[in-house]
Amino acid sequence: MMRLAIAVLWMLHWMPVPVLAVLGRVLGTLGYLLARERRRVGLINLRLCFPQLSPLARRQIILRHCQHLVQSILEYGVVWWASPTRLRRLVTLKNVHYLHEQAEHNTIVLYPHFVAFELCALRLNLDQRLVSVYSNQKNPVLNAQIYQGRNRFDNAKIVSRQEGLRSIIKAMRDHTPFLYLPDQDFGPRDSVFVKFFAEDAATITGLSRIAGLAKAKVVPAVARRVGFRYELEFFPAWENFPSDDLEADTRRMNAFIEQQVLEQPEQYFWLHKRFKTRPQGQPRFY
Q1: What is the 3-state secondary structure (H, E, C) of 264-283?
Q2: Which SS3 state, helix, strand or coil, does residue 237 take?
Q3: Is residue 23 part of a domain?
Q4: pLDDT digits (tens, 9 = 90+) for 122-136
Q5: What is the rounded end-to-end Cα distance, in angstroms, of the chain?
Q6: pLDDT for position 32
Q7: 107: domain range?
Q8: Which of 38, 149, 175, 247 makes a 20 to 30 Å CA pair with 211?
């Protein structure tokens, strides 16, 4: 079954992006209607983050998010097989000089979970060697395909979560930026509770800790779908980071992500149980 799905994605990668967008809207709407549990998770997340919005407005955001998410799945064929020429045509790198300015430093690219993150990261990898962390998939066929796809240009250092920080820091010291996605709930270990919008969220402190250990600069970047094209925007390296206040550093990260979510709320990963881990004594949301 997985081999068939991958074959379908290979066929779809020949399609123009507007066609994939239409398919994404149709299948995403169907997914919104059928995936009741995931829809519920997304609506709970939006209620916690945006209590001021009406239930109708929240449902509209989740519907549009499901359409974007399904389109991003259909685009995996583009990620895995599109030519470098097509990738460069599809994705614009905006303000990439902020990353290049740190070429002589160890660098962490703070990269939140927006729906276009995979395609934009691969476009960046055409020109820039990167190190990233990889979680093995349960399906061996899918696992092999994702791993191969992420390293298709032989310009990436992919580190298993089991390897720890040593391999990541070693790669950064070879002037390889670390593409870091720390904005999900990974449980209580190495996490602190800081606000994400209106609610306390268990947030890992890795950005501050790794930046301190590696003496690294943090350069945020955000992936966006803009019409039928894509944009990867970089922001200036953070000053005075990390500080001596781990909790304040972690809240600073969340505040940056909040600003970006407000610009494109339908493209953020709302179906993840972001508030699954709760402070002791507090009720669960899901």
Answers
A1: CHHHECCCCCCCCCCCCCCC
A2: coil
A3: no
A4: 999 999 999 998 888
A5: 31
A6: 98
A7: 84-267
A8: 149
Tokens for 21? 């967008």
> Hey, is 9 helix, strand or coil?
helix
More confident residue, 154 or 110: 110
Could you tell me the CA-to-CA distances from 9 to 23, 36, 73, 89, 113 in Å, in that order? 12, 25, 9, 20, 22
pLDDT by residue (tens digit) across 14-72?
999 999 999 999 999 999 999 999 999 999 999 999 999 999 999 999 999 999 999 99
Residue keyed to tokens 């990261």:
121
Q: Which residues pair with 268 in a beta bridge?
A: 114
| 55 located within any domain | no
Work out the number of other CB atoms within 10 angstroms of the CB of residue 158.
Answer: 15
SS3 string, 17-73, reads HHHHHHHHHHHHHHHHHHCHHHHHHHHHHHHHHCCCCCHHHHHHHHHHHHHHHHHHH
Judge whether 68 lies within some domain. Answer: no
CA–CA separation, 100 and 92 (whole Å): 16
pLDDT of residue 219: 98
The total number of structural domains in the chain stands at 1
HEC string of 150-172? HCCCCCEEEEEHHHCHHHHHHHH
Contact indicator for 225, 68 with CB cutoff of 8 Å: yes
pTM of the complete model: 0.95
